[in-house]
Write a structure and sequence with these properties.
The complex is a heterodimer of chains A (393) and B (389). With 393 residues, chain A is an alpha+beta fold. Chain A has 13 helices and 12 strands. In chain A, the strands form 2 sheets. In chain A, strands 1, 2, 3, 4, 5, 6, 7, 8, 9 and 10 form a 10-stranded mixed β-sheet that branches. In chain A, helix 11 packs antiparallel against helix 12. The longest helix of chain A is centred in the C-terminal third of the chain and has 35 residues. Chain A starts with a helix and ends with a helix. Chain B has 389 residues and is α+β, with helices and mostly antiparallel strands. In chain B, a hairpin with an 8-residue loop joins strand 7 and strand 8. Chain B is elongated and about 95 Å long. The chains are: A alpha+beta (393), B alpha+beta (389). At the A-B interface, helix 2, strand 2, strand 3, helix 9 and strand 11 of A face helix 2, helix 9 and helix 10 of B.
């Protein structure tokens, strides 16, 4: 027979200070874990949703990202001969030549630190290729005019990128471009960008080449054929599935996860010691009580289970508080984060996301801490010599 | 002496609890030391940058946009005597990787004739200067990079730039900067890169940024404004900042590490305080009758207070020293030294950071014992003795 849960619950309040302190320690550990993981999850989510299985990204061999790649016009025209490219209603190939550049824009808010925001020069065909891009306010830019459209995340995060705002691009310092539209792109990295007519970017940055070519495939399953052709001697450029391209860019999030694991490992062990300390105190303070429970028939196992359960009660409630804290932190304080990618040299805006994975990781860590911290004290409790403990009464 | 013996006995009376508490303090202190080492590294880097009397000039709209190399002569014309504006060095970032190794390099191509006068913090011997001047493929590397890749002076290395010309380029290492503030960056000669660009048919004559060495702080202030004015309303406007402002812009965009790591360090110290408070209050409760006896024997409240305080401080100091020593030894004296971290890549733990950590551990000890010690002082002897079992 096991002890009633209410017994454990009431016991927690016997030693308010000690329980409270351990509770706080576990809650803080879970909070740190959850915040760090949701950073990684937020970044990963915005990069992972960026690729379409129908798209192939073509870069210069050796270039690590669109912004460091230079494709010369003759190379670009060779790429158009690759097999498997989709055509639109009028028979035109759906291939988007894009020019990736950057501009410095201050972040919104009191500090106004400058951020390197990605600017993508595109032709109208880009909207066919990036089919998740949808205007949510305003209109599309007019290819001949100094007009831009802005991703939702960028509009929220940086100064002057709201509808009707003006932004200076490249060498056009005396002719600012007007923001005529805001677009969303399914939460992807494109939402951190500014899109402008390619002609305007060529002119203002003096770049008569292409950074990347995005090829739309008629059939996603023939991607390898197209990639092989482009990588081969006929074109000699480097093609990747768009999904893989963004996957590579999100390698940094793996580093965050590794770092988090190490950090939480260290903090978790510290928390185990705190829990063990509290539980030892609980056991030592209740020797007579435990001896009494044993006399009236509760087994050693029941006693052990009671202490482990007590520690689990502390840890899981602390876990819930820690998680709640991290959600509140994400919603209220760190609403939008951005990070300068060292591959693209541009900022990526993203939101903290408490995903189910984060939730379970936090739960598992707190259960581990609870059990590991309680085992030794529980064993001691089970081994209390009954008669001797009662005699001391 | 009696007190010390008493303290020692108290600590060894419940060795398990002492050990647990030590560990619960030591682990957060370890995290504290690691994160503050990173912050400290960044700060030392920035402080060194601010001492160098250098200006960094980038294209106005974005650091990624290049400037024409002709700007150098125009900047130099601001002070033909070279007495205030010591030298101007154009640079082009080429990043790069070596073959079959995913680790990214930070390689910058610089004007070889002015690099050494602009960056006198690189102390080359006369022979090495000669090699840098004579050999177009010369490469100066930082101690951390050299350590990671096992490079030494005289080695030939092949780096594939991440920007045009993209083709593999061979370099000869002429100098390993042992005590440079930036132990990661490789410096090569820009004329070599330009030549390769020409061969591959790319646009030449563009630089990513210029560094300008000034003679004094007043000159620095003067040229910071004067250079931007020189290029105002031209197609290639500039943005001139002192080196510290230039560098800290990078740092802030990378997760704002100094700020976030400081928060993390504070949180972990908070955890340590909790753990230590827990132990001390339990210790105190265990020994209620003992303390009551002490007081009834005539020991003053002050003695009781200092007894509880010093026990806590000793415990936390011990934990703090272990917590600070472990990462120090691990990162400074084992192969972990070559471990690369994201963003900062290189971790150097200064003894002063460890010292801070130990001091903080002592403070944790004091804070943790405040409440139990206060209760000990306030304790009513008669009622405490009455409750004795």
């Amino acid at each position: 027979m096991s002890l009633p849960l209410v017994y454990n619950w009431r016991n927690l309040f016997v030693r308010k200070l000690s329980t409270g302190l351990t509770f706080t320690v576990v809650a803080v550990v879970v909070f740190v874990l959850s915040v760090l993981l949701s950073f990684a999850a937020g970044m990963r989510a915005s990069l992972a949703s960026s690729g379409s299985p129908y798209n192939v990204v073509v870069l210069k061999p050796g270039a690590t990202s669109e912004s460091t790649s230079i494709i010369l016009p003759e190379e670009a025209s060779r790429a158009t001969q690759a097999p498997g490219i989709a055509r639109d209603e009028s028979g035109q190939l759906i291939i988007s030549q894009e020019l990736s550049v950057q501009t410095s824009i201050p972040r919104r808010g009191p500090e106004g630190v400058m951020a390197n925001v990605a600017v993508r020069g595109v032709d109208p065909v880009a909207f066919r290729v990036h089919d998740n891009v949808r205007l949510i306010a305003g209109v599309e830019f007019n290819p001949g005019l100094y007009e831009v459209i802005v991703g939702k995340a960028a509009a929220e995060r940086y100064e002057n990128l709201q509808l009707g705002g003006e932004v200076t691009i490249g060498r056009l310092s005396n002719r600012p471009c007007r923001v005529v539209g805001i677009f969303e792109a399914g939460g992807s990295a494109l939402e951190s960008e500014i899109w402008a007519p390619r002609t305007v970017i060529i002119d203002s940055y003096g770049r008569h080449f292409t950074s990347s070519i995005i090829v739309r495939l008629a059939d996603a399953s023939t991607a390898q054929k197209t990639i092989d052709y482009i990588n081969g001697p006929a074109v000699n450029l480097e093609a990747k599935r768009e999904v893989d391209y963004y996957e590579d860019l999100s390698s940094k999030t793996t580093e965050i996860v590794i770092l988090t694991t190490i950090l939480i490992g260290i903090m978790g062990v510290g928390a185990i010691f705190a829990v063990a300390n509290t539980m030892y105190a609980a056991v030592d303070g209740r020797r007579r009580e435990i001896a009494m429970l044993r006399t009236i028939g509760f087994s050693r196992r029941a006693i052990m289970a009671a202490f482990v359960l007590e520690s689990l009660l502390i840890c899981t409630t602390a876990c819930l508080l820690g998680l709640a804290g991290s959600i509140a932190y994400g919603e209220l304080i760190a609403t939008r984060q951005d990070v300068l990618s060292d591959a693209t040299w541009t900022v990526l805006a993203y939101e903290l996301r408490v995903t189910p994975v984060t939730f379970f990781a936090a739960l598992i860590v707190s259960i581990l801490v609870g059990v590991a911290g309680a085992i030794a004290p529980a064993v001691r409790a089970a081994r209390i010599p009954v008669i001797e403990a009662l005699r001391k009464a | 002496m009696l007190r010390l013996v008493y303290l020692y006995r108290n600590l060894t009376r419940n060795p398990l609890r002492t050990l647990l508490t030590c560990a619960a303090v030591a682990l957060p202190i370890t995290i504290f030391v690691l994160s503050m080492a990173v912050v400290d590294g960044i700060n030392r880097f920035l402080d060194n940058a601010s001492r160098q009397l250098r200006l960094a000039i980038t294209q106005k709209s974005s650091i990624v946009n290049p400037l024409p190399e002709g700007h150098r002569a125009k900047i130099q014309s601001l002070d033909p005597s070279r007495s205030r504006l010591v030298s101007v060095c154009g640079m082009r970032w080429i990043g790069g990787k070596i073959e079959r190794d995913p680790r990214p390099l930070s390689t910058v191509a610089a004007d070889h004739d002015t690099f050494l006068t602009t960056f006198p913090d690189y102390k080359l011997t006369a022979e090495q200067i000669e090699a840098w001047r004579r050999d177009k493929q010369a490469l100066i590397t930082g101690s951390a990079t050299a350590g990671q890749f096992g490079w030494k002076v005289g080695d030939r290395v092949v780096i594939r730039p991440s920007v045009p010309p993209y083709t593999p380029m061979e370099f000869h290492i002429v100098f390993v900067a042992e005590d440079a503030s930036d132990p990661m960056t490789n410096w090569c000669r820009r004329d070599y890169v330009e030549e390769e660009l020409k061969k591959a048919g790319y646009l030449e004559g563009m630089v990513s940024f210029f560094f300008v060495k000034c003679a004094s702080q007043a000159d620095l202030e003067h040229f910071r404004v004067a250079i931007d004015e020189l290029f105002a309303r031209t197609p290639d406007e500039t943005k001139t900042q002192d080196e510290k402002a230039f560098m800290s812009e990078f740092v802030k965009q990378q997760f704002n590490l100094p700020q976030n790591l400081t928060i993390l360090a504070i949180v972990t110290v908070f955890v340590a305080i909790m753990a230590a408070t827990n132990t001390m209050s339990m210790n105190f409760r265990d020994r209620l009758n003992e303390i009551a006896t002490l007081k009834s024997l005539g020991f003053r409240s002050g003695f009781v207070f200092s007894l509880i305080q010093s026990e806590s401080m000793l415990l936390c100091l011990l934990g703090g020293m272990i917590g600070a020593a472990v990462p120090y030894i691990a990162f400074m004296h084992t192969p972990l030294r070559n471990f690369t971290l994201p963003v900062i890549q290189y971790l150097e733990i200064q003894p002063v950071v460890c010292l801070h950590a130990v001091l903080i551990a002592a403070c944790i000890g004091i804070l943790a014992a405040v409440w139990p010690a206060y209760q000990g002082v306030r304790m009513h002897v008669v009622s405490a003795l009455r409750n004795l079992e």
